[in-house]
Protein 1
Amino acid sequence: MSERSLVLLKPDAVQRGLIGKLVSRLEDRGLKIAGMKLMRLDLPLARRHYAEHVEKPFFGGLAEFMMSSPIVAMAVEGKGAVEAVRSAMGVTNPQSAAPGTIRGDFALDIGRNLIHGSDSPESAERELAIFFAEEELFDYARDSERWITES
Ligand code: IDP
Ligand code: MG
Protein backbone atom coordinates (compact mmCIF):
# COMPACT_ATOMS: atom_id res chain seq x y z
CA MET A 1 0.00 0.00 0.00
CA SER A 2 1.31 3.46 -0.83
CA GLU A 3 1.48 6.45 1.49
CA ARG A 4 -1.54 7.98 3.22
CA SER A 5 -2.19 11.51 4.49
CA LEU A 6 -4.90 12.83 6.79
CA VAL A 7 -6.86 15.59 5.07
CA LEU A 8 -9.47 17.70 6.83
CA LEU A 9 -11.84 19.95 4.90
CA LYS A 10 -12.33 22.61 7.54
CA PRO A 11 -15.64 24.24 8.56
CA ASP A 12 -15.15 27.10 6.05
CA ALA A 13 -14.89 24.59 3.19
CA VAL A 14 -18.10 22.84 4.26
CA GLN A 15 -19.98 26.12 4.85
CA ARG A 16 -18.87 27.54 1.50
CA GLY A 17 -19.99 24.45 -0.40
CA LEU A 18 -16.48 23.64 -1.54
CA ILE A 19 -16.36 19.95 -0.50
CA GLY A 20 -16.81 18.68 -4.04
CA LYS A 21 -14.31 21.08 -5.60
CA LEU A 22 -11.61 20.33 -3.03
CA VAL A 23 -12.09 16.56 -3.22
CA SER A 24 -11.90 16.88 -7.02
CA ARG A 25 -8.55 18.67 -6.79
CA LEU A 26 -7.13 15.68 -4.91
CA GLU A 27 -8.81 13.05 -7.08
CA ASP A 28 -7.70 14.85 -10.25
CA ARG A 29 -4.12 14.61 -8.98
CA GLY A 30 -4.52 10.83 -8.97
CA LEU A 31 -4.94 10.46 -5.22
CA LYS A 32 -7.35 7.85 -3.88
CA ILE A 33 -9.84 8.25 -1.03
CA ALA A 34 -9.15 5.46 1.46
CA GLY A 35 -11.50 6.84 4.15
CA MET A 36 -14.00 9.69 4.37
CA LYS A 37 -16.53 11.01 6.87
CA LEU A 38 -18.42 14.11 7.98
CA MET A 39 -17.87 14.79 11.67
CA ARG A 40 -17.79 17.52 14.27
CA LEU A 41 -14.71 18.15 16.39
CA ASP A 42 -14.88 18.60 20.15
CA LEU A 43 -12.16 20.22 22.26
CA PRO A 44 -10.34 17.03 23.29
CA LEU A 45 -10.12 15.96 19.63
CA ALA A 46 -8.99 19.44 18.50
CA ARG A 47 -6.30 19.48 21.21
CA ARG A 48 -5.10 16.01 20.26
CA HIS A 49 -4.98 16.76 16.56
CA TYR A 50 -3.28 20.16 17.01
CA ALA A 51 -1.08 19.02 19.94
CA GLU A 52 1.93 20.94 18.56
CA HIS A 53 -0.11 24.19 18.55
CA VAL A 54 -1.97 23.96 21.87
CA GLU A 55 0.31 26.50 23.55
CA LYS A 56 0.31 28.95 20.62
CA PRO A 57 -1.57 32.25 20.92
CA PHE A 58 -3.80 31.38 17.95
CA PHE A 59 -4.92 28.02 19.34
CA GLY A 60 -8.08 29.38 21.01
CA GLY A 61 -9.34 30.87 17.77
CA LEU A 62 -8.25 27.85 15.79
CA ALA A 63 -10.06 25.40 18.08
CA GLU A 64 -13.22 27.52 18.13
CA PHE A 65 -13.18 27.70 14.33
CA MET A 66 -12.54 23.97 13.91
CA MET A 67 -15.47 23.11 16.22
CA SER A 68 -17.87 25.67 14.72
CA SER A 69 -19.36 23.44 12.03
CA PRO A 70 -18.89 19.92 10.63
CA ILE A 71 -15.69 19.01 8.85
CA VAL A 72 -14.86 16.30 6.34
CA ALA A 73 -12.08 13.95 7.42
CA MET A 74 -10.34 11.97 4.70
CA ALA A 75 -7.56 9.45 4.38
CA VAL A 76 -5.93 10.24 1.06
CA GLU A 77 -3.66 7.66 -0.52
CA GLY A 78 -1.13 7.58 -3.33
CA LYS A 79 2.54 7.81 -4.26
CA GLY A 80 4.09 10.49 -2.02
CA ALA A 81 0.58 11.38 -0.81
CA VAL A 82 1.77 13.60 2.07
CA GLU A 83 3.81 15.90 -0.18
CA ALA A 84 1.28 15.72 -3.01
CA VAL A 85 -1.46 16.97 -0.69
CA ARG A 86 0.76 19.68 0.83
CA SER A 87 1.67 21.02 -2.61
CA ALA A 88 -1.97 20.92 -3.75
CA MET A 89 -2.96 22.84 -0.57
CA GLY A 90 -0.42 25.67 -0.85
CA VAL A 91 1.33 27.38 2.07
CA THR A 92 -0.40 27.99 5.41
CA ASN A 93 -1.12 31.69 4.84
CA PRO A 94 -3.38 32.04 1.78
CA GLN A 95 -2.03 35.58 1.28
CA SER A 96 1.21 33.94 0.13
CA ALA A 97 -0.22 30.81 -1.48
CA ALA A 98 0.49 30.34 -5.16
CA PRO A 99 -2.32 30.43 -7.70
CA GLY A 100 -3.22 26.90 -8.69
CA THR A 101 -3.15 25.75 -5.09
CA ILE A 102 -6.33 25.28 -3.05
CA ARG A 103 -5.43 28.04 -0.60
CA GLY A 104 -4.15 30.28 -3.41
CA ASP A 105 -7.31 29.86 -5.45
CA PHE A 106 -10.02 29.78 -2.78
CA ALA A 107 -8.79 31.49 0.41
CA LEU A 108 -7.57 34.86 1.74
CA ASP A 109 -7.01 34.48 5.49
CA ILE A 110 -4.71 32.27 7.57
CA GLY A 111 -7.59 31.66 9.99
CA ARG A 112 -9.85 30.48 7.14
CA ASN A 113 -7.52 28.38 5.02
CA LEU A 114 -9.97 25.58 4.15
CA ILE A 115 -7.88 22.45 4.43
CA HIS A 116 -5.50 20.48 6.63
CA GLY A 117 -2.97 17.99 5.32
CA SER A 118 -0.42 16.03 7.38
CA ASP A 119 3.07 17.56 7.27
CA SER A 120 5.07 14.28 7.26
CA PRO A 121 4.44 10.54 6.96
CA GLU A 122 4.97 10.28 10.75
CA SER A 123 2.36 12.98 11.42
CA ALA A 124 0.04 11.27 8.96
CA GLU A 125 0.23 8.01 10.88
CA ARG A 126 -0.44 9.76 14.19
CA GLU A 127 -3.30 11.86 12.82
CA LEU A 128 -4.99 9.05 10.88
CA ALA A 129 -5.13 7.02 14.08
CA ILE A 130 -6.92 9.92 15.80
CA PHE A 131 -9.62 10.24 13.14
CA PHE A 132 -10.14 6.74 11.77
CA ALA A 133 -10.71 3.29 13.19
CA GLU A 134 -9.00 0.51 11.25
CA GLU A 135 -12.31 -0.68 9.76
CA GLU A 136 -13.06 2.80 8.40
CA LEU A 137 -10.03 2.69 6.12
CA PHE A 138 -10.26 0.79 2.84
CA ASP A 139 -7.45 -0.86 0.95
CA TYR A 140 -8.78 -1.31 -2.57
CA ALA A 141 -7.43 -1.22 -6.10
CA ARG A 142 -8.68 1.09 -8.85
CA ASP A 143 -8.41 0.05 -12.48
CA SER A 144 -6.86 3.47 -13.24
CA GLU A 145 -3.90 2.87 -10.90
CA ARG A 146 -1.45 1.77 -13.58
CA TRP A 147 -2.26 4.92 -15.57
CA ILE A 148 -1.39 7.09 -12.56
CA THR A 149 1.79 5.50 -11.20
CA GLU A 150 4.37 3.47 -13.11
CA SER A 151 5.31 1.51 -9.98
P1 IDP B 1 -0.70 23.98 8.14
O1 IDP B 1 -2.18 23.87 8.29
O2 IDP B 1 -0.32 24.62 6.84
O3 IDP B 1 0.04 22.71 8.41
P2 IDP B 1 0.24 24.88 10.77
O4 IDP B 1 1.42 25.77 11.00
O5 IDP B 1 0.36 23.45 11.14
O6 IDP B 1 -0.20 25.06 9.23
O7 IDP B 1 -0.97 25.54 11.57
C1 IDP B 1 -2.18 24.83 11.74
C2 IDP B 1 -3.34 25.74 11.47
O8 IDP B 1 -3.37 26.75 12.49
C3 IDP B 1 -3.26 26.53 10.15
O9 IDP B 1 -3.73 25.81 9.04
C4 IDP B 1 -4.13 27.73 10.47
O10 IDP B 1 -5.52 27.36 10.36
C5 IDP B 1 -3.82 27.97 11.94
N1 IDP B 1 -2.77 28.97 12.12
C6 IDP B 1 -1.43 28.76 12.00
N2 IDP B 1 -0.74 29.89 12.24
C7 IDP B 1 -1.67 30.83 12.51
C8 IDP B 1 -1.59 32.22 12.85
O11 IDP B 1 -0.51 32.81 12.94
N3 IDP B 1 -2.78 32.85 13.06
C9 IDP B 1 -3.98 32.22 12.96
N4 IDP B 1 -4.10 30.91 12.65
C10 IDP B 1 -2.97 30.23 12.42
MG1 MG C 1 0.30 21.62 10.18
Note: The helical segments are 11-15, 19-29, 43-49, 59-66, 81-89, 102-106, 121-131.
Protein 2
Amino acid sequence: MPSPPKNTDNNKIISLHGCPIHFTDEKHFGRQISAFIGETEKNFILTDVNTAKLCLPLVRSQFPGFDESRVITMEAGEGEKNMSSLHHIWNFLLQHRAGRDSCLVNLGGGMITDLGGFAASTYKRGIRFVHIPTSLMGMADAAIGGKTGINIGGIKNQAGTFALPQAVIVMPGFLKTLLWHELLSGFAEIFKAALALDHSFWNKIKELSLSETKRAAIISLLENSIIRRSIEIKAEVVASDFRDQGKRQCLNFGHSIGHALELLEQGTAKEIPHGYAVAAGMLCEAFISNLRCGLPAKQLSDIEKCISINFPKTHFEEKDIEGIISLIRHDKKNVNDKVRMSLLKAAGTCVPGVECPEALIRKGLSSYLKKA
Ligand code: GLY
Protein backbone atom coordinates (compact mmCIF):
# COMPACT_ATOMS: atom_id res chain seq x y z
CA MET A 1 0.00 0.00 0.00
CA PRO A 2 1.47 3.42 -0.89
CA SER A 3 2.44 5.64 2.02
CA PRO A 4 0.15 8.64 2.58
CA PRO A 5 1.43 12.09 1.64
CA LYS A 6 3.57 13.89 4.17
CA ASN A 7 1.62 16.22 6.38
CA THR A 8 3.46 19.36 5.43
CA ASP A 9 0.60 21.64 6.41
CA ASN A 10 -1.49 20.53 9.38
CA ASN A 11 -4.10 23.13 8.58
CA LYS A 12 -5.01 21.33 5.43
CA ILE A 13 -5.92 18.02 7.01
CA ILE A 14 -8.84 16.91 9.15
CA SER A 15 -8.70 13.34 10.37
CA LEU A 16 -11.75 11.19 11.02
CA HIS A 17 -11.01 7.82 12.63
CA GLY A 18 -7.80 7.61 10.60
CA CYS A 19 -9.43 8.77 7.36
CA PRO A 20 -7.60 11.93 6.28
CA ILE A 21 -9.65 14.66 4.66
CA HIS A 22 -7.21 16.63 2.54
CA PHE A 23 -7.74 20.07 1.08
CA THR A 24 -5.87 20.68 -2.09
CA ASP A 25 -5.67 22.92 -5.13
CA GLU A 26 -5.16 22.32 -8.82
CA LYS A 27 -1.37 22.45 -8.44
CA HIS A 28 -1.10 19.75 -5.79
CA PHE A 29 -4.09 17.67 -6.80
CA GLY A 30 -2.26 15.01 -8.84
CA ARG A 31 0.35 14.49 -6.16
CA GLN A 32 -2.35 13.88 -3.57
CA ILE A 33 -4.08 11.28 -5.71
CA SER A 34 -0.94 9.43 -6.58
CA ALA A 35 0.24 9.41 -2.96
CA PHE A 36 -3.00 7.80 -1.84
CA ILE A 37 -3.65 5.23 -4.51
CA GLY A 38 -0.25 4.50 -6.03
CA GLU A 39 0.50 4.06 -9.73
CA THR A 40 -0.65 0.48 -10.21
CA GLU A 41 -2.79 -0.80 -13.06
CA LYS A 42 -5.31 -2.07 -10.56
CA ASN A 43 -7.00 1.26 -9.89
CA PHE A 44 -10.35 2.33 -11.29
CA ILE A 45 -12.28 5.54 -11.31
CA LEU A 46 -16.06 5.95 -11.07
CA THR A 47 -17.64 9.02 -12.67
CA ASP A 48 -21.00 10.09 -14.04
CA VAL A 49 -21.55 11.64 -17.46
CA ASN A 50 -21.16 15.16 -16.00
CA THR A 51 -17.99 14.65 -13.98
CA ALA A 52 -16.52 12.56 -16.82
CA LYS A 53 -16.78 15.69 -18.96
CA LEU A 54 -16.07 18.45 -16.41
CA CYS A 55 -13.70 16.96 -13.84
CA LEU A 56 -12.08 13.79 -15.19
CA PRO A 57 -9.84 15.66 -17.69
CA LEU A 58 -8.13 17.47 -14.79
CA VAL A 59 -7.65 14.20 -12.91
CA ARG A 60 -6.18 12.59 -16.00
CA SER A 61 -3.91 15.49 -16.82
CA GLN A 62 -2.28 15.10 -13.43
CA PHE A 63 -2.63 11.39 -12.95
CA PRO A 64 -2.33 9.60 -16.31
CA GLY A 65 -3.02 6.16 -14.77
CA PHE A 66 -6.72 6.27 -15.65
CA ASP A 67 -6.93 5.30 -19.32
CA GLU A 68 -10.35 4.57 -20.88
CA SER A 69 -10.35 0.97 -19.71
CA ARG A 70 -10.25 2.04 -16.06
CA VAL A 71 -13.10 4.51 -16.15
CA ILE A 72 -16.61 3.47 -15.12
CA THR A 73 -19.13 6.11 -16.18
CA MET A 74 -22.71 6.12 -14.94
CA GLU A 75 -25.66 8.26 -15.98
CA ALA A 76 -26.13 11.26 -13.67
CA GLY A 77 -28.82 11.77 -11.01
CA GLU A 78 -30.13 10.31 -7.77
CA GLY A 79 -32.25 7.80 -9.73
CA GLU A 80 -29.02 6.00 -10.72
CA LYS A 81 -28.20 5.15 -7.11
CA ASN A 82 -29.77 1.75 -7.49
CA MET A 83 -29.23 -2.00 -7.57
CA SER A 84 -28.56 -2.18 -11.29
CA SER A 85 -25.81 0.48 -11.09
CA LEU A 86 -24.27 -1.45 -8.22
CA HIS A 87 -24.29 -4.65 -10.29
CA HIS A 88 -22.75 -2.81 -13.20
CA ILE A 89 -19.83 -1.62 -11.05
CA TRP A 90 -19.24 -5.04 -9.45
CA ASN A 91 -19.29 -6.68 -12.91
CA PHE A 92 -16.94 -4.10 -14.35
CA LEU A 93 -14.46 -4.62 -11.51
CA LEU A 94 -14.71 -8.39 -11.89
CA GLN A 95 -14.23 -8.33 -15.67
CA HIS A 96 -11.24 -6.05 -15.29
CA ARG A 97 -9.72 -8.33 -12.67
CA ALA A 98 -9.85 -5.85 -9.82
CA GLY A 99 -8.45 -7.51 -6.72
CA ARG A 100 -8.15 -6.81 -3.02
CA ASP A 101 -5.19 -4.56 -3.83
CA SER A 102 -7.28 -2.37 -6.16
CA CYS A 103 -8.55 1.05 -5.28
CA LEU A 104 -11.75 2.67 -6.58
CA VAL A 105 -11.66 6.45 -6.87
CA ASN A 106 -15.13 7.99 -6.67
CA LEU A 107 -15.14 11.26 -8.58
CA GLY A 108 -18.48 13.01 -8.30
CA GLY A 109 -21.29 14.27 -6.10
CA GLY A 110 -23.17 12.40 -3.39
CA MET A 111 -24.69 9.89 -5.80
CA ILE A 112 -21.25 8.74 -6.97
CA THR A 113 -19.58 8.69 -3.55
CA ASP A 114 -22.53 6.82 -1.96
CA LEU A 115 -22.77 4.30 -4.79
CA GLY A 116 -19.02 3.89 -5.33
CA GLY A 117 -18.39 3.62 -1.60
CA PHE A 118 -21.01 0.85 -1.36
CA ALA A 119 -19.64 -0.99 -4.39
CA ALA A 120 -16.04 -0.82 -3.13
CA SER A 121 -16.83 -1.67 0.48
CA THR A 122 -18.64 -4.86 -0.57
CA TYR A 123 -16.67 -6.00 -3.68
CA LYS A 124 -14.57 -9.00 -2.59
CA ARG A 125 -15.63 -8.09 0.97
CA GLY A 126 -14.11 -4.66 0.62
CA ILE A 127 -11.40 -2.94 -1.39
CA ARG A 128 -9.84 0.48 -0.84
CA PHE A 129 -11.63 3.55 -2.09
CA VAL A 130 -10.95 7.27 -2.20
CA HIS A 131 -13.57 9.99 -2.53
CA ILE A 132 -13.00 13.09 -4.63
CA PRO A 133 -16.24 15.06 -4.13
CA THR A 134 -16.96 17.48 -6.95
CA SER A 135 -20.20 19.08 -5.69
CA LEU A 136 -20.60 21.43 -2.73
CA MET A 137 -22.97 18.93 -1.15
CA GLY A 138 -20.38 16.19 -1.57
CA MET A 139 -17.55 18.27 -0.11
CA ALA A 140 -19.52 19.57 2.86
CA ASP A 141 -21.57 16.49 3.66
CA ALA A 142 -22.02 13.37 1.52
CA ALA A 143 -18.37 12.35 1.10
CA ILE A 144 -17.60 12.87 4.77
CA GLY A 145 -18.39 10.30 7.43
CA GLY A 146 -18.33 6.86 5.83
CA LYS A 147 -21.97 6.32 4.92
CA THR A 148 -22.45 4.47 1.63
CA GLY A 149 -25.66 3.28 0.06
CA ILE A 150 -28.25 2.87 -2.65
CA ASN A 151 -31.97 3.56 -2.83
CA ILE A 152 -34.47 0.71 -3.02
CA GLY A 153 -37.86 1.16 -4.66
CA GLY A 154 -37.10 4.87 -4.80
CA ILE A 155 -36.67 5.09 -0.99
CA LYS A 156 -33.37 6.68 -0.10
CA ASN A 157 -30.38 4.77 1.29
CA GLN A 158 -32.24 1.59 2.24
CA ALA A 159 -29.16 -0.59 1.71
CA GLY A 160 -25.61 0.43 2.47
CA THR A 161 -22.58 0.15 4.71
CA PHE A 162 -20.62 2.22 7.16
CA ALA A 163 -17.16 2.24 5.61
CA LEU A 164 -14.54 4.95 5.62
CA PRO A 165 -12.60 5.73 2.47
CA GLN A 166 -8.85 5.62 2.52
CA ALA A 167 -8.95 9.38 2.07
CA VAL A 168 -11.19 12.22 0.98
CA ILE A 169 -9.52 14.72 -1.34
CA VAL A 170 -11.35 18.06 -1.34
CA MET A 171 -10.44 20.26 -4.30
CA PRO A 172 -12.70 23.35 -4.06
CA GLY A 173 -11.64 24.32 -7.60
CA PHE A 174 -14.31 21.87 -8.80
CA LEU A 175 -16.99 24.25 -7.46
CA LYS A 176 -16.46 26.30 -10.61
CA THR A 177 -17.90 23.44 -12.66
CA LEU A 178 -21.26 23.59 -10.86
CA LEU A 179 -24.52 25.11 -11.99
CA TRP A 180 -25.95 27.74 -9.64
CA HIS A 181 -28.76 25.50 -8.39
CA GLU A 182 -26.19 22.82 -7.53
CA LEU A 183 -24.16 25.27 -5.44
CA LEU A 184 -27.28 26.56 -3.72
CA SER A 185 -28.45 23.03 -3.03
CA GLY A 186 -25.15 22.30 -1.24
CA PHE A 187 -25.66 25.32 1.00
CA ALA A 188 -28.72 23.66 2.52
CA GLU A 189 -26.49 21.03 4.15
CA ILE A 190 -24.15 23.75 5.41
CA PHE A 191 -27.03 25.66 7.05
CA LYS A 192 -28.22 22.36 8.46
CA ALA A 193 -24.85 21.51 10.06
CA ALA A 194 -24.71 24.98 11.63
CA LEU A 195 -28.31 24.88 12.88
CA ALA A 196 -27.97 21.40 14.30
CA LEU A 197 -24.57 21.68 15.91
CA ASP A 198 -22.84 25.06 15.94
CA HIS A 199 -24.59 28.20 17.11
CA SER A 200 -21.69 30.55 16.42
CA PHE A 201 -21.23 29.21 12.87
CA TRP A 202 -24.97 29.72 12.33
CA ASN A 203 -24.64 33.32 13.53
CA LYS A 204 -21.86 33.85 11.00
CA ILE A 205 -23.72 32.48 8.01
CA LYS A 206 -27.40 33.19 8.69
CA GLU A 207 -27.28 36.64 7.05
CA LEU A 208 -25.73 35.34 3.83
CA SER A 209 -27.64 36.36 0.79
CA LEU A 210 -26.89 33.82 -1.88
CA SER A 211 -27.40 35.36 -5.24
CA GLU A 212 -25.96 34.20 -8.53
CA THR A 213 -24.63 37.68 -9.22
CA LYS A 214 -22.26 37.18 -6.25
CA ARG A 215 -21.16 33.73 -7.37
CA ALA A 216 -17.40 34.40 -7.40
CA ALA A 217 -17.43 35.98 -3.92
CA ILE A 218 -19.54 33.12 -2.56
CA ILE A 219 -17.17 30.49 -3.99
CA SER A 220 -14.24 32.29 -2.45
CA LEU A 221 -15.98 32.35 0.96
CA LEU A 222 -16.64 28.63 0.60
CA GLU A 223 -13.01 27.92 -0.30
CA ASN A 224 -11.59 30.09 2.45
CA SER A 225 -13.66 29.07 5.43
CA ILE A 226 -17.15 27.68 5.07
CA ILE A 227 -16.39 24.24 3.61
CA ARG A 228 -13.70 23.62 6.16
CA ARG A 229 -15.95 24.53 9.12
CA SER A 230 -18.78 22.36 7.80
CA ILE A 231 -16.42 19.40 7.47
CA GLU A 232 -15.04 19.97 10.97
CA ILE A 233 -18.56 19.99 12.43
CA LYS A 234 -19.47 16.81 10.62
CA ALA A 235 -16.19 15.03 11.38
CA GLU A 236 -16.57 15.81 15.08
CA VAL A 237 -20.10 14.42 15.40
CA VAL A 238 -19.34 11.37 13.23
CA ALA A 239 -16.23 10.61 15.32
CA SER A 240 -18.44 10.48 18.42
CA ASP A 241 -21.18 8.31 16.86
CA PHE A 242 -19.93 6.62 13.70
CA ARG A 243 -22.82 4.14 13.44
CA ASP A 244 -25.53 6.75 13.74
CA GLN A 245 -27.03 5.54 17.01
CA GLY A 246 -27.52 8.93 18.64
CA LYS A 247 -25.82 12.31 18.19
CA ARG A 248 -25.00 11.80 14.49
CA GLN A 249 -28.73 11.78 13.84
CA CYS A 250 -28.64 15.54 14.48
CA LEU A 251 -27.30 15.74 10.91
CA ASN A 252 -30.74 14.61 9.81
CA PHE A 253 -32.39 17.83 10.92
CA GLY A 254 -34.68 18.84 8.04
CA HIS A 255 -34.32 15.48 6.33
CA SER A 256 -37.35 13.53 7.59
CA ILE A 257 -39.68 15.93 5.81
CA GLY A 258 -37.05 16.93 3.21
CA HIS A 259 -36.55 13.37 1.93
CA ALA A 260 -40.31 12.87 1.65
CA LEU A 261 -40.72 16.12 -0.35
CA GLU A 262 -37.87 15.07 -2.62
CA LEU A 263 -39.45 11.68 -3.26
CA LEU A 264 -42.81 13.20 -4.08
CA GLU A 265 -41.61 14.56 -7.43
CA GLN A 266 -38.66 12.23 -8.08
CA GLY A 267 -38.50 11.05 -11.67
CA THR A 268 -41.01 13.69 -12.86
CA ALA A 269 -40.37 16.96 -14.68
CA LYS A 270 -40.95 18.74 -11.35
CA GLU A 271 -38.07 16.92 -9.60
CA ILE A 272 -36.27 19.26 -7.16
CA PRO A 273 -32.63 19.31 -6.03
CA HIS A 274 -31.99 17.50 -2.74
CA GLY A 275 -30.89 20.73 -1.02
CA TYR A 276 -34.09 22.58 -1.93
CA ALA A 277 -36.12 19.76 -0.38
CA VAL A 278 -33.92 19.82 2.73
CA ALA A 279 -34.35 23.61 2.97
CA ALA A 280 -38.15 23.18 2.89
CA GLY A 281 -37.81 20.30 5.37
CA MET A 282 -35.81 22.53 7.73
CA LEU A 283 -38.51 25.20 7.61
CA CYS A 284 -41.22 22.69 8.50
CA GLU A 285 -39.10 20.97 11.15
CA ALA A 286 -38.07 24.32 12.68
CA PHE A 287 -41.77 25.17 13.00
CA ILE A 288 -42.35 21.78 14.68
CA SER A 289 -39.24 22.34 16.87
CA ASN A 290 -40.80 25.54 18.20
CA LEU A 291 -43.93 23.65 19.30
CA ARG A 292 -42.26 20.42 20.43
CA CYS A 293 -38.81 21.40 21.74
CA GLY A 294 -39.12 25.07 22.64
CA LEU A 295 -37.04 26.53 19.80
CA PRO A 296 -37.31 30.25 20.65
CA ALA A 297 -39.63 32.24 18.35
CA LYS A 298 -36.92 34.77 17.43
CA GLN A 299 -34.62 31.94 16.31
CA LEU A 300 -37.46 30.36 14.33
CA SER A 301 -37.99 33.66 12.58
CA ASP A 302 -34.23 33.95 11.75
CA ILE A 303 -34.35 30.47 10.22
CA GLU A 304 -37.47 31.32 8.23
CA LYS A 305 -35.84 34.49 6.94
CA CYS A 306 -32.59 32.80 5.91
CA ILE A 307 -34.30 29.89 4.14
CA SER A 308 -37.01 31.86 2.43
CA ILE A 309 -34.58 34.51 1.11
CA ASN A 310 -32.16 31.97 -0.27
CA PHE A 311 -34.16 28.97 -1.53
CA PRO A 312 -37.02 28.71 -3.98
CA LYS A 313 -40.26 27.45 -2.51
CA THR A 314 -40.83 23.72 -2.84
CA HIS A 315 -44.12 23.03 -4.53
CA PHE A 316 -46.74 20.74 -2.97
CA GLU A 317 -50.40 21.09 -2.14
CA GLU A 318 -52.67 20.47 0.86
CA LYS A 319 -53.91 17.30 -0.85
CA ASP A 320 -50.30 15.91 -0.92
CA ILE A 321 -49.88 16.06 2.85
CA GLU A 322 -51.13 12.54 3.64
CA GLY A 323 -48.84 11.12 0.92
CA ILE A 324 -45.88 13.03 2.39
CA ILE A 325 -46.65 11.66 5.85
CA SER A 326 -46.83 8.13 4.55
CA LEU A 327 -43.37 8.59 2.95
CA ILE A 328 -42.05 9.89 6.29
CA ARG A 329 -43.14 6.60 7.88
CA HIS A 330 -40.25 4.90 5.97
CA ASP A 331 -37.62 7.04 7.67
CA LYS A 332 -34.83 4.96 9.22
CA LYS A 333 -34.98 6.96 12.47
CA ASN A 334 -38.49 5.76 13.23
CA VAL A 335 -38.95 3.25 16.06
CA ASN A 336 -41.97 0.94 16.59
CA ASP A 337 -43.77 2.68 13.71
CA LYS A 338 -43.58 5.99 15.60
CA VAL A 339 -42.11 8.89 13.63
CA ARG A 340 -38.94 10.28 15.24
CA MET A 341 -37.21 13.42 14.14
CA SER A 342 -34.08 15.37 14.94
CA LEU A 343 -35.45 18.69 16.17
CA LEU A 344 -33.96 21.94 17.46
CA LYS A 345 -34.06 23.05 21.08
CA ALA A 346 -32.19 26.15 19.93
CA ALA A 347 -30.19 27.20 16.90
CA GLY A 348 -27.03 25.09 17.17
CA THR A 349 -28.56 22.56 19.59
CA CYS A 350 -30.37 19.58 18.15
CA VAL A 351 -32.16 16.77 19.97
CA PRO A 352 -32.17 13.47 18.05
CA GLY A 353 -34.96 10.88 18.23
CA VAL A 354 -37.85 13.14 19.28
CA GLU A 355 -41.16 11.32 18.87
CA CYS A 356 -43.31 13.45 16.63
CA PRO A 357 -47.09 12.94 16.40
CA GLU A 358 -48.44 13.00 12.85
CA ALA A 359 -50.78 15.86 13.76
CA LEU A 360 -47.73 18.03 14.39
CA ILE A 361 -46.19 17.06 11.05
CA ARG A 362 -49.46 18.05 9.35
CA LYS A 363 -49.25 21.42 11.12
CA GLY A 364 -45.65 21.92 10.02
CA LEU A 365 -46.47 21.14 6.38
CA SER A 366 -49.60 23.34 6.41
CA SER A 367 -47.67 26.25 7.92
CA TYR A 368 -45.13 25.96 5.06
CA LEU A 369 -47.93 26.12 2.52
CA LYS A 370 -49.40 29.22 4.14
CA LYS A 371 -46.12 31.17 3.86
CA ALA A 372 -45.88 33.35 0.78
N1 GLY B 1 -25.74 12.96 6.04
C1 GLY B 1 -26.03 12.48 7.33
C2 GLY B 1 -24.94 11.64 7.91
O1 GLY B 1 -23.91 11.47 7.31
O2 GLY B 1 -25.12 11.11 8.96
Note: The chain has a mean pLDDT of 93.
